[in-house]
Amino acid sequence: MQLLTMAVTAAQSIHIGGWKFTGSFVTIDLIAATTNGLNGAILARRPDHYRNFTMVGILLMALLGGIGGGVTRDILLGKVPGALTNPAYITLCLIAGVVGYKLAFSKEQLFREGVFQFMTSFSLPWYAIAGAQAAVMSGLPIMGCLLLAVVGPTAGRYYIDVTSGVPPKQFVRGEWFVGIALLTGAVWIACYAAGLGTWWCAGVAFVIGFTVRLLALYRGWEEPLAKEPQGVYKHDDGRPLLGRKLAGKSAREMHDLGLVVEPDGSFGTATPVGPPPPPEPADSTTPR
After folding, report:
1. What DSSP line would sit under the chain, residue for residue?
2. What is the spatial distance between Cα 223 and Cα 234, in angstroms, rounded to a whole number?
């Protein structure tokens, strides 16, 4: 009888979960998770990240990108991650992963890269806003709030980069990836402290963060490199570029960046690298 009671109790504890899409924080968090899930799937197919991933691997990358930042943020706050209690997170990330998988096999790689950069610019401010809001609601001091505003939008990218075996985006030169997350979180906190409503705070912070990110991508604004001794070789991470950094690139350079695919394989043949071979020695005999 006791075993039957325990079995009934265990069966009652198993449930589908509470689907929730509304509420200022949940809606913002779901927008960030879904767009980051799409980014994760597309990122897994970029030339610098591709490691012969399977279809399951692409979907796992979508989950890493979509809920990785939110789960990390909630764990730091000592809460059960919302992605584990609300099935909407995982479901939307998987759907976004399928969409990203389809986009990843489109013929136009420049279009695919443009979609990825646009969606990254779109999701970055939302996750920063969600992180700042969660921290403020938990009563953290200002420095803790700013830290979570950075962790939320960047942790998922860190997991994908490490899984793909490339230097994490946070630590290499880029278009102020971490700085824009920090700026967006600071703007949200300032607006909230000024007494604006939740959605007004989110709207102002998003517009500023999104605009600065797009400008940084197009204008080529990047973090300064650390000072190096003279003669140190600066490694090229080979990541696709946008805007001004693509200006003047030749077809071969675009191909090397993974942004041009020639179906006839015209760029597939190896080109000799190094100094040209020495000329043939002249014949010492003179004609008579």
Report:
1. -HHHHHHHHHHHH---------SHHHHHHHHHHHHHHHHHHHHTTSTTT-S---HHHHHHHHHHHHHHHHHHHHHHTTS--HHHH-HHHHHHHHHHHHHHHHHHTSS-HHHHHHHHHHHHHHHHHHHHHHHHHHHHHTT--HHHHHHHHHHHHHHHHHHHHHHHTS--GGGS--SSHHHHHHHHHHHHHHHHHTT--HHHHHHHHHHHHHHHHHHHHHHT--PPPPP--TTPPPPP------GGGGTT--HHHHHHTT----TT-TT-S----SSPPPPPPPPS----
2. 15
Residue 80 covered by a domain: yes
pLDDT at residue 9, as a whole number: 55
Q: What integer pLDDT is reported at residue 273 of this predicted model?
A: 44
Total domains in the chain come to 1
pTM for this structure? 0.71
Q: Give the model's pLDDT for residue 269.
A: 44
Residue 120 pLDDT: 84
pLDDT per 10-residue tile (average), the chain, 288 residues: 56 64 81 90 83 90 93 93 91 92 67 76 90 93 95 92 90 88 96 92 94 89 76 53 55 57 46 53 52
- Whether residue 69 lies inside any domain: the answer is yes
Residue 195 lies in domain:
24-219
